[in-house]
Hints:
The structure holds two protein chains of two kinds. By secondary structure, chain A is of the alpha+beta class.
Amino acid sequence: MGEEVKLFRTWSSPFALRIVWALRIKGIEYETIFEDISNKSPSLLQYNPVHRKVPVLLHNGRPIAESLVILEYIDETWKQAPLLPVDPHERAMARFWAKFGDDKILGSIWSVFIKQGKEQEEAMVPAMENLKFLEGELKGKKFFGGETIGFVDLALGWLANLIGLLEEIVGLKVVDGEKLPLLSAWMQDFGDAPIIKDNWPARDGMILKFQALRDATIAAASK
Amino acid sequence: MAEEIILLDLWASMLGMRVRVALAEKGLKYEYREQDLRDKSPLLLEMNPVHKKIPVLIHNGKPICESLIIVQYIDEVWYNKSPLLPSDPYKRAQARFWADYTDKLYELGRQLWLTKGEEQETAKKGFMECLKLLEGELGDKPYFGGENFGFLDVALVTFSCWFFAYESFGNFSVEAECPKLVAWSKRCMEKDSVSSSLEDPLKIHGFVIMMRKELGVE
């Protein structure tokens, strides 16, 4: 059967990158449609009317939205190179850590990034607490998925690229190799893995974008 | 091997009720342990060190946290009775998408009884928008799962015993805005697994009164 796979994404969305990686790992051919968030295409609005966000996967004309939902769909539809483990308890743990990344890590890192001075120092406390949980989860493992990259690695993968960029912009070390050695090593190993390395968004563009976001947020907060 | 299932929960939690419904659907016997969240038990802290929240399912000594993750776990382990997720990957994706969406009701609902004035109005608006979208998703089906009660039904139905409390403090009527949803919730309540797991709306109302007093909302 002819498979038609399309991915709606933006050049910088870390959530969309998860899908790029998953499709590459499984060796699935697909077409990319780049969206401009300030001018969303009618197709995007049609395929994701609830959230109007990327990524959206279109498989044989049927849309799936929400990156973690899309990852599970991809894993269930194309069985090669499985992303989730087989054991139900391990699967539950994988889902737990992916959700933890989105619910807690993202927000706490962002808080550190958009603040300054004392407020930033205070924001580091919950951020470090959260990162320490990830450190603990890596004990005895190269990747969160074990020997190979899995569901949780893809879910948390944005850390491997964005942390370094944000650290450079704010001039603050968040993932310290001494305090978080396993997480540091994972960021390196994941970031350098062949499929992952080729797909990072353009560095200069990312620095510009996030610098502008930080400046705008700080300006708005001081009004 | 004898299965040991323990549920750490709070009687009024609609998230905990999701797990109770799932366990009942599968006909599973388990030990229910009521938790005091103001004085968290060593077991809760050991089994959910990351969030220190309920519900937590402990199956043969191993913990599973986060209500929808627990429900999926139950569905995967006891797959040969009353399957909650459909077998088709696309339908599963739709069920997961909408189940995640129902989680929005938790925070919006909280704002409904925790706040007043403009903040409350915003929460009310958001809450009703969510319910209307969900009602649209239900359409004319008997259940969100189609002919059979499924994952999304479990995710949403537990909120229905909180409707009376939301309506009282938010000053609105769910039935007036979403009659099909209310009809669906009554249909679900005809199932033993649901009626035995959901709490009395009046008791929930009393719980919210108590919480408001405790949190100094007047």
